[in-house]
Design goal:
The strands form 3 sheets. Strands 5-4-6-7-1-8-13-12-11 form a 9-stranded mixed β-sheet, with helices on both faces. With 374 residues, it is an alpha+beta fold. The protein has 11 helices and 13 strands.
Length: 374
């Protein structure tokens, strides 16, 4: 791939509300104790299992997460509810997810020194959209006053890199003059706050990236896209089964099986070597050595996964400068994690420095972009 396609701007929008590990654990433990007390007879008879308690130390050791942002904090810590409360909005009002997307998009446009008239494609790529249609991307496009087209793309935690690949291809082909790839990750509605092993994983955030030709680039910090690579390999180990067909299957649309759930140990064992091999092979295809990379903007799912992947590639532990970590503050933000890392840690790079954005997740899916500072 030639270097005429560039990333010229990135935007990061962070919700106003935040939940620490301590707050989350206090709520979960209170709920678990209440559940165990109410079901003490059935637990004693072995008919159901008692809910285990958790701790902030357990969460940090298991994941590296210390806190997370949340779009709506109300209700999430209420032991009689255990899920956030979102206001109902009419069809005429802006959706919650579009609101998040627009906030990040405006920051990306400002960073790229672009106006709405410079963009003609909007891709909203994320793990979940709050409705099937009309596309959130088209709602965002209209609100920003962009002429052209937009569409949604769902590839779980790899959605951002898959969306960026589509944007790069469009610029390279000449079918678009400027693309906004937006990742409004409103994950909290799909979190099972009653599951000790997953209630702490996700946080809400929105990121956005402007992709255009180097001929039109006017930004202070821009990167040539040297290459993109995406791959999928089917796995059942990470799932969220909520969907419109539950209406006709007569299942509980909000049961634990419909929310996020995973076989964490299998995911760790299988995805880490896949991601490391993917990055190494992608670099080799472009004649680039691992040692030439200045920065790794990795998917922010679990600190232990990132440590293992970088160690496998480098033969040693990566420094925080080489592979910055944001999941301690943001938690796992699905597809936005690697873009958060890029947004916060790209301005210090020198001209010619090479870095890789890589995300991986359900599917399995893995996407990567090799970038060079202009």
């Amino acid at each position: 791939m030639n270097s005429s396609v560039v990333i010229s701007g990135v935007g990061l929008w962070t919700p106003a509300h935040r939940i620490s590990n301590e707050e989350l654990v206090d709520s979960y433990n209170a709920w678990a104790e209440q559940f165990n007390a109410k079901n003490s007879d059935a637990i004693e008879k072995g008919e159901i299992d008692a809910k285990p308690l958790s701790s902030a130390a357990f969460i940090e050791k298991a994941s590296g997460i210390k806190s997370r942002y949340i779009y709506s904090k109300e209700g999430a810590l209420d032991i009689n509810r255990m899920r956030p409360i979102l206001e109902v909005r009419s069809d005429e009002q802006m959706s919650h997810q579009a609101e998040m997307a627009i906030a990040a998009a405006k920051k990306a446009l400002a960073a790229a020194n672009k106006k709405a008239s410079d963009i003609d494609m909007v891709i909203v790529s994320c793990a979940y959209t709050q409705r099937s249609y009309p596309a959130i991307a088209i709602e965002v496009q209209a609100a920003l006053g962009i002429e052209g087209f937009g569409f949604d793309m769902l590839v779980a935690c790899s959605a951002a890199t898959f969306g960026l690949q589509r944007a790069v291809d469009a610029i390279k082909a000449g079918s678009s003059k400027g693309v906004l790839v937006i990742n409004p990750e409103l994950t909290s509605p799909q979190v099972n706050y009653m599951d000790r092993d997953s209630h702490f994983i996700f946080g809400d955030v929105a990121t956005a990236v402007v992709v255009e030709s180097s001929e039109t680039c006017q930004s202070t910090h821009s990167f040539d896209v040297l290459s993109t690579k995406c791959i999928t390999s089917y796995s059942n180990n990470i799932r969220s089964n909520f969907g419109y067909t539950t209406r006709v299957t007569d299942e509980d649309p909000y049961s634990a099986d419909m929310l996020f759930h995973q076989n964490g140990r299998k995911v760790f064992k299988e995805v880490c070597p896949m991601a490391a091999d993917h990055i190494e092979n992608h670099l080799k295809s472009q004649g680039i050595q691992v040692s030439q990379l200045k920065r790794w903007w990795l998917h922010q799912a679990n600190i232990n996964m990132n440590l293992l992947i970088s160690k496998r590639l480098l033969g040693r532990d990566a420094t925080l400068e080489e592979a910055p970590v944001v999941l301690d503050e943001y938690a796992n933000t699905a597809s936005a994690g690697s873009i958060i890392a890029f947004a916060k840690y790209h301005e210090d790079l020198a001209v010619g420095d090479i870095g890789v954005i890589c995300s991986f997740g359900a599917g399995y899916s893995i996407g990567s972009l090799i970038l060079r500072k202009r």
